[in-house]
Fold this protein.
Amino acid sequence: MMPYEFGGIVIVPCRDVDDEIDSELARILDLITRDIAYRRSALVPLSKALLARIERLTAGVTVDLDAHIESEVVL
């Protein structure tokens, strides 16, 4: 699999896909990559108004990216 480049974004598929979950994730990322390539015009930057709204709605919210997810995660 080759890297895909879209403007300043580069998507590089993972070579070490050994486990079933990684394989599923790789398929999902490949689907997204193909969709971006096919419908490039659908990618638009966030508007300043939407970004400001997101910042207002998430102000004071902290997220622990390393926290355990309690329920089963299915991709």
